[in-house]
Design brief:
479 residues; alpha+beta; Arc Repressor Mutant, subunit A; Structural Genomics Hypothetical 15.5 Kd Protein In mrcA-pckA Intergenic Region, Chain A; 3 domains; two-stranded antiparallel ribbon; 34% helix; binds zinc ion
């Protein structure tokens, strides 16, 4: 828990890099899952494989042009075609083929290739007739459609098969009636979440992964929901109030900008210190000189200012590379470009197509310093432009596009690097050992954003922000 105040010259929210989420290797997801989170990531990719506008964006996509044909890819493509056009009987039949391919044929193929020779647990394919009997039985009711169904129910293997068929049939009904695309995976989309629950559990049955997840618990994993501990929240809230007293006292003395000697950075520790304390106060740290957000750093950007258009620069560098979402760009004191809800894009249509040197306010030339701001993220950075026209190709066939012909010098920004589209999941198993938990129904990125937005008042110079420190920060203690 800390106090952030720009005028007091103390560390800001972004001065320390945030802990990154756990990443799972593709092969673990595709071939050797061992934890519920692995099969849930797989099921989200399966959802993409069937319903994403671009099938190749799924991690499970396999190119069929090579020598080695996938056992399921042809059926996936066939089903995608049929979803919006074919009749129920045809679609059910193809769904059956696909489920058999994924949960039997593909597994058997990998067993035959002796992929699991050294594995602790050898997967066992789900028998073909488990699927065929469900496909034939048109009257079977999916578990989620049965009376008395609860989100905490654990589905049997047959329940999962029945639910999977039902989910894909529902999706095809939506596609046949509306003709539009299914939304991207969202944990709050009931159909998407039921699909992920049953298809991930079928994979758990194949690989002997325990426990089988209920709709409710799968949603927790799929949506990166982090359990928060009620007592910690209460302690931090109390600390906030104590710090607020200190800030108010300074304000009454008209001594703003001097919070360093009265406010404290307080670590909330999971394990007590040698003196037996769970709360460890330290003085407010000074800003990280390389922090992008406190703008002590000027970035050096080298590129061909005559060839790059402003549009490409905004897309490729300002947004993708630097992590801005709604940038405003200034040359000197002139705003040459802004984005935001109330900004008319057409206004800048003539500007964005210009090359950098031809921009208004003198353009961006060698040595020009521009300022990029984003009020929605409370971000600001100065960038020094360096012109370079000779970009060597490594060899004649080198197809490096203009979009990759740039160099950013200095440390890249830390803020705004949270990739929301990333499917990486945090393994929260070790978070569950503290007794009472309340579930924070937001994913990681939302939590961070709402913390920032909720506590920062843009009209006020004094910015107070409370950051609950992860236990990894213990290493910074002096004891
Ligand atoms: Zn900072």
């Amino acid at each position: 828990m800390t106090v952030i105040d720009k005028s007091s010259n103390v560390e800001c929210y972004d001065c320390q890099p945030k802990p990154t989420q756990k990443v799972y290797p593709i092969c673990t997801i595709r071939s050797t899952p061992s934890m519920p989170v692995h099969v849930i990531v797989w099921a989200k990719e399966f959802y993409k494989l069937l319903f994403n506008p671009k099938v190749e964006e799924s991690m499970l996509f396999e190119d069929q042009s090579g020598d080695e044909k996938s056992t399921f890819m042809d059926i996936v493509l066939q089903l995608r075609d049929e979803l919006a056009t074919a009749n129920d009987v045809k679609i059910r039949d193809t769904i059956g083929q696909l489920l058999i391919a994924l949960y039997n044929t593909e597994i058997q193929k990998q067993l035959d290739m002796e992929r699991f020779k050294t594995a602790k647990k050898v997967p066992s394919p789900i028998p073909v007739d488990s699927f065929t009997k469900m496909i034939v039985d048109q009257d079977s009711i999916a578990p989620s459609k049965q009376s008395g169904y609860k989100h905490t129910d654990i589905w049997s293997k047959d329940d999962c098969i029945s639910e999977a068929i039902s989910c894909i049939m529902e999706a095809s009904k939506i596609l046949r009636e509306g003709g539009s695309l299914l939304p991207e995976f969202d944990k709050d989309d009931d159909l998407a979440m039921r699909f992920v629950t049953c298809t991930s559990n079928l994979r758990s049955y194949v690989f002997g992964i325990e426990p089988i997840q209920s709709h409710y618990s799968a949603k927790g994993i799929a949506g990166n929901i982090i359990p928060a501990i009620a007592t910690t929240n209460a302690i931090v809230a109390g600390l906030q109030v104590l710090q607020a007293f200190q800030i108010l006292a300074k304000q009454m003395e008209n001594k703003t900008g001097e919070l360093k000697d009265c406010c404290r950075f307080v670590y909330c520790l999971r394990d007590k210190t040698r003196q037996g304390y769970y709360l460890q106060p330290t003085s407010l740290p000074s800003p990280n000189p390389k922090c992008f957000v406190c703008r002590s750093a000027v970035l050096q950007l080298t590129l061909d200012t005559t060839k790059w258009t402003f549009e490409t620069m905004v897309k490729r560098i300002i947004k993708k590379e630097l992590g801005f979402t709604e940038p405003s760009v200034n040359i000197g004191s002139s705003i040459i470009y802004e984005e935001g809800d109330d900004i008319d894009d057409d206004e800048y249509a003539a500007i964005v197509v210009k090359s950098l040197v031809d921009l208004p306010a003198g353009g961006m030339k060698d040595g020009t310093i521009i300022t990029i701001e984003d009020f929605t993220q409370d971000l600001e950075v100065d960038v020094c432009i360096n012109h370079k026209s000779d970009w060597e190709k490594k060899d004649a066939d080198d197809e490096v596009g203009l979009e990759d012909q740039f160099i950013i010098g200095g440390d890249k920004p830390i803020a705004g690097k949270c990739d929301q589209e990333n499917d990486q999941l945090k393994n929260d198993e070790d978070e569950n050992d503290d007794g009472i938990v309340i579930v924070d129904d937001e994913d990681i990125s939302n939590t961070v954003d709402s913390k920032k937005r909720g506590l920062i008042d843009d009209d006020d110079d004094d910015i107070i922000e409370v950051v609950e420190e992860p236990s990894t920060k213990k290493t910074r203690l002096s004891d």
